[in-house]
Design a protein that fits this description.
The structure is a homodimer.
Chain A: H1 5-12, H2 19-28, E1 30-34, E2 39-41, E3 49-55, E4 57-63, E5 69-76, E6 80-81, H3 84-89, E7 96-99, E8 103-109, H4 110-119, H5 123-147, H6 150-160, H7 162-165, H8 170-177, H9 181-194
Antiparallel strand pairs in A: 1-8, 2-7, 3-6, 3-8, 4-5, 4-7
Helix pairs in contact in A: 8-9
The first copy, chain A, binds a DNA duplex through helix 9.
DNA sequence: CTTTAGGCTTAAAGTAGTTTAAGTTATTGT
DNA sequence: ACAATAACTTAAACTACTTTAAGCCTAAAG
């Protein structure tokens, strides 16, 4: 059971690798230990890393003109994270990525990423499935945002990501749901009364 | 310039096909002429078709318990459309798809779709890129829904999809933006005053 | 050609969510 | 151990958006 077992296992969810492919894949990974509350990507920076979360938890968010934060997504162990649009199109990042707790990630540079489609025969398939899942998940989020009230969205969030709830502040959860922290506090008070 | 030129051209945006691959691809397409305001997929039905829009315009939407419509997406010439989650996972459809005007589409069955990954060497890449674009577009929509007011979302919609604006009713546009038709009418009146 | 249903508008009243501001409780850095 | 900063709460005033209901206009169906 090496340090690379989980990330290899993640690939093996969707594709089979030869021993040579495994070795090559491991050779391009950059191991990073990142303390809690560290920003590893900031708006405007080159977004040339795709990261696999080995342990810990991270969050990506953007800021509007007025300085208001919106949490785009979070990632815990066994998830992948980057500013996907900017990574794929080699644009300066439009988002921030920060650790929520001490984390270990394996990063792949855009250069190596592009090569993986040639060096690992199943990688195209692997990444296609990753993108399929990300797309359908994001579409569900859109629909829930359009059709549900904040209270219902909050309970679905708690239900879908119970582990994340403890790692995020209320302000961060509110910014994922698209409401103010004050209103989330309101929703929670209401629920306490019911119990 | 055959009827298949546009759909082949669409594949060739991202991959190169041999003549044999082109012929095979064309052989699995189902040509469909569909009159205006026809429902070609309804909630609960098997969603086993992925459709390329040759001409015309379509819309996908879902209904909540109370009967309220939400427009998930629309598609015009040269776009692809299905209930992606249900198509990929072979679940009964959660959405409706209807034509907004007389349309011609080429459909691919899930069975043929699965085979394409083996019969066309670049298809995995093609579909990966399709999913990448769909994902990053959807993520942008989420952020705009969370951060912008309805008025701003409406003007960005008009700006991004000027051709669609004329094909959708105000009710449908409102349901894409996540507001009531009455409030959209309000926004439009306000703008008329400014001009 | 006429009826009817749907699409669009208007306006008044209601509600979900925001803003501001103040106070309380944790965390963090020195 | 202390001060400073951020997290969470509360409440009152405000605004964005919804609901309801009525009226008008256009297009499709008989």
């Amino acid at each position: 059971m090496s340090i690379h077992t989980p990330i290899l296992h993640n690939l093996q969810k969707h594709i089979t690798l030869t021993k040579a492919e495994e070795d090559h894949f491991i050779s391009i990974l950059t191991y990073k230990e990142i303390p809690k509350k560290t920003t590893l990507l900031a708006e405007g920076q080159a977004c040339n890393q795709l990261s696999y979360v080995h342990s810990g938890a991270l969050r990506s968010y953007c800021l509007d003109e007025s300085g208001k934060e919106s949490t785009i997504m979070f990632a815990m162990a066994d998830w992948w994270l980057t500013d996907m649009y900017c990574f794929l199109n080699e644009k300066p990042s439009m988002t921030f990525i920060e650790t929520l707790e001490d984390s270990v990630v394996f990063s792949i540079s855009k250069l190596h990423f592009d090569q993986l489609f040639h060096t690992i025969s199943g990688f195209e398939r692997f990444f296609r499935i990753l993108m399929q899942n990300a797309y359908t998940r994001e579409q569900l989020r859109t629909i829930e945002n359009l059709t549900l009230k904040a209270e219902e969205r909050y309970y679905r969030f708690l239900n879908k990501y119970p582990q994340m709830a403890g790692k995020l502040t209320q302000k961060q959860i509110a910014s994922y749901l698209g409401i103010t922290p004050e209103f989330l506090s309101n929703i929670r008070k209401k629920q306490l009364g019911k119990q």
